[in-house]
Amino acid sequence: MSIKLTLRTRTNVPLEAQCINPDTVKHLSQSGVEHLEVIHGNETARLGDFFTVKGKGHDTIHVEGDTSNVKYLGAGMTQGEVIIDGDVSMHLGCAMTGGKITVKGNAGDWVGPEMSGGQIVVKGNAGHMVGSAYRGQPTGILGGEIFVHGNVKNEAGNSMRRGLIAVGGNAGDFTGVNLLAGSVIVCGEMGARAGAGMKRGTIVSFSDAEMLPTFEYACTYHPVFLRFYLKHLRDQGFDIDDRYINGRYDRWSGDSIELNRGEVLLFNR
Questions:
Q1: Res. 1: pLDDT tops 80
Q2: Minimal CB count within 10 Å: which of 77, 173, 194, 201?
Q3: 23 φ, ψ to 5°?
């Protein structure tokens, strides 16, 4: 039996609940879970002050209620699963190294910062900086997968070094900015300045995009590796048409203000 946490009342002040991760709760009794520490604004409180807890000692956590103002869910988790029925706030899965987080609603900014393994699935939309580096840090995610079935805002994949970010809808400006390696796949449209400052890695879009003048058209071809990625995304529930799997892509090389070893692949219609 999994642990079920139900938020009784939506908090107007942000609640930081870093303790809601399988590593922390899997060996605790129900009372132990209720006494875990959370941060409410600038005050320390108990998890049980806000959540009704049912169950004990399990590595699967179900979270219910309006958690749109709850931060750091699943932060630091290494295994297990967190399933969130509604929306969540910022820093989802911060520094996680394993396990899986599923959000059935929308997620706020900074999904998966400092992540190095595991999988985050957002069924709705996500905010700015998905899989991106914190300001002042040199790298974004170091591994793992982030799947957003809806839209994301600006700077998805900022400075990411490894891993995969897939967006089922549209992405905002600066997609893959300062990308070091890894892959960002956008099934919809990208905003302005995609790939600005990228050193290596791959950005894919099924739509046209206006490339920066520091990118150069290289060729049009069938990228074999992309077929495996897209079939994997289809298995994950993304709506991937066969024409994207078997189609041709325009390859743009850049960014020439950096190493010029990155690539942007745009579906050729």
A1: no
A2: 173
A3: -60, -35
